[in-house]
Amino acid sequence: YAWSSTGLWGFTKADFLVADEGRIARFDGSGNAVWSSDTSFGTGQGTDSGGAASVKPIVRPTRAYPFGDREMVVVDAGGNRIVRMDMSGREIRSLAGYKLDPNFLPDGASLNEPTELRMPKDVLVYSSYVPSGSNPFVSPAPTEYWVHYFVADSGHKRLLEIVDRYAYDPSTGRRGDAISYNVNGQIEKGLGVLYWHSPEGLSGSRFD
């Protein structure tokens, strides 16, 4: 595994993944291109496309990480988004910003600051199981499965931890659908919710 200023990371022992200008490419150990794409496409929940198919360019990626056996996570600073996609270019998750929970505002966050990402430079993705007693959000389930996106949001000079909330059944070990809740008569999904924000002293003009 290795990296450079263009964002080169090991994909397997033989292959490697490159965040190139305007594209993502996978090469084998001999330097032969195995796969590349300058776009991603997505439909439905979890992407920015709504219910219709949408093809989006990969503008200026700065990082590309393997995620499981057949997925990758791409930080597209030029496109102001984080994308999880498979080897066909299909979006599993597209994250261009966050929303606020009606019951919880983390320290350091402001109601007036932009909720969209701007020139994100890096991301850490991980998951956790969260019991209701440790869940600050509205309508907590007894146990939830969270996917965390810890984002260096360079354009806004802040760090953000954004979570996707899913139902989880400990007896079967199965993840369910995204948590749903009611806000002023509208059903919201617990996807892309702000969980943590860099403190005020480490955000803004004094934080690079």
Fold and architecture overview:
- The protein is 0% helix and 50% strand.
- The chain contains no helices and 17 strands.
- The strands form 5 sheets. Strands 11, 12, 13, 14 and 17 form a 5-stranded antiparallel β-sheet that branches.
- Strand 2 and strand 3 form a beta hairpin.
- It is globular.
- The N terminus is likely disordered.
Outline the secondary-structure elements.
Elements: E1 8-10, E2 16-20, E3 23-27, E4 33-37, E5 39-42, E6 54-57, E7 61-67, E8 71-76, E9 81-86, E10 91-95, E11 120-131, E12 143-153, E13 158-169, E14 174-178, E15 180-183, E16 186-189, E17 193-197
Antiparallel strand pairs: 1-2, 2-3, 3-4, 5-6, 7-8, 8-9, 9-10, 11-12, 12-13, 13-14, 13-17, 15-16
The secondary structure category is: mainly beta
Q: How far is it from the N-terminal to the C-terminal residue, by CA?
A: 27 Å
Separate helix tally = 0
Radius of gyration: 18 Å
Helix fraction bin: under 10%
Order of helices and strands: EEEEEEEEEEEEEEEEE
Summarize the structure.
The chain is mainly beta.
Keyphrases for this structure?
about 210 residues, 4-stranded antiparallel beta sheet, mainly beta, 17 strands, disordered N terminus
